[in-house]
Design goal:
293 residues; alpha/beta; Nucleotidyltransferase, domain 5; 2 domains; 5-stranded mixed sheet; Euk-type_GlcNAc_Kinase; ATPase_BadF; ATPase_NBD; ATPase
Length: 293
């Protein structure tokens, strides 16, 4: 049987998205499910991938057993690490043809409508990626807590550290302090530590909006956190600019919020992303699996 359905999977630390298309580019269905980073929990990642895919198929009017004839590209966080790429490679997935690549690869393809370019991505984590003349380069993306600076998890972690300093009397109990305590319903450092003992990156990332909002309201600690993150993103963008890609985009759930913290000269060489990461995954699926005419 010839494959004529193309499925793109974008699996990140907080959610998984699926996009189903025909060869001619017609969108048939989309699906969203939970976390799909195999580094954090491979079984949960596999469950989320299948769930998002089935939702996309269902929305397109297909039954789940059609997965077996679908051309699929999975762009997943964490598979740049060989150990976790091997774990995903060994998974007995339900798809027909299937290619595994990084979430950065498909995000870059999506941002530039299937063409080469460069991206900085800021969501739960952070990293940068370029594809120039077939050569791929990755910057950052080392995972939380060692990396992912300026990502949502990092913002939340910095906020919790500041709150602990507030409880210890090392800094004032400011607006950010109050926002975090209210959201977590805590009144002591012990309560904070107990609650955060088993936090995953997405749990830290849930605190990130408090930092953004407190900084916007003028909180000095929140502003210092944002300035630190913006300095890191600026360094990534400077490095990408040196490599002279055709286009550079900043993407991800926090992208629009970070742009306000970057200087105008930096924003002058940025381009708006054209399409989504899952679109990039579908485009790659077509490149890889389309029957030659």
């Amino acid at each position: 049987m010839k494959y004529e359905l193309y499925l793109g999977i974008d699996g990140g630390g907080s959610k998984c998205k699926a996009r189903l298309e025909l060869e001619n580019g017609e969108l048939l269905g989309e699906g969203v499910s939970g976390p799909a980073n195999p580094v954090h929990n491979s079984e949960l990642a596999f469950q989320s991938i299948v769930e998002a895919s089935v939702i996309a198929l269902t929305n397109a009017g297909f039954s789940p057993d059609v997965l077996g004839r679908v051309n699929t590209v999975m762009g997943l966080a964490g598979v740049n690490i060989p150990k976790y790429h091997a774990i995903v490679e060994a998974w007995k997935h339900p798809f027909g043809n299937c290619l595994i690549t990084t979430d950065l690869h498909i995000a870059c393809l999506g941002a530039h409508a299937g063409s080469e370019g460069a991206i900085v991505i800021t969501g739960t984590g952070s990293s940068a990626f370029t594809s120039i003349n077939g050569v791929q380069t990755m910057l950052g993306g080392h995972g939380f807590p060692l990396g992912d600076k300026a990502g949502g998890a990092w913002l939340g972690w910095k906020a919790l550290s500041a709150v602990l300093d507030g409880f210890d009397g090392l800094m004032s109990r400011n607006d950010l302090f109050e926002r975090v305590c209210n959201q977590l319903q805590i009144s002591s450092s012990n309560e904070l530590v107990t609650q955060a003992l088993h936090f995953l990156p997405r749990d830290y990332a849930a605190i990130a909006p408090l930092v953004l909002d407190a900084a916007k309201a003028g909180d000095e600690i929140a502003i210092s956190i944002m300035n630190e993150g913006a300095h890191y993103l600026q360094s990534l963008l400077n490095r990408l600019h040196e490599l002279q890609p055709k286009r550079i985009s900043v993407i991800g759930g926090l992208a629009s919020r970070w742009l306000d913290w970057l200087p105008s000269e930096t924003k002058s060489f940025l381009n708006s992303p054209l399409c989504s990461p899952e679109y990039g995954a579908v485009a790659l699926a077509k490149q890889q699996f389309k029957d030659p005419q």
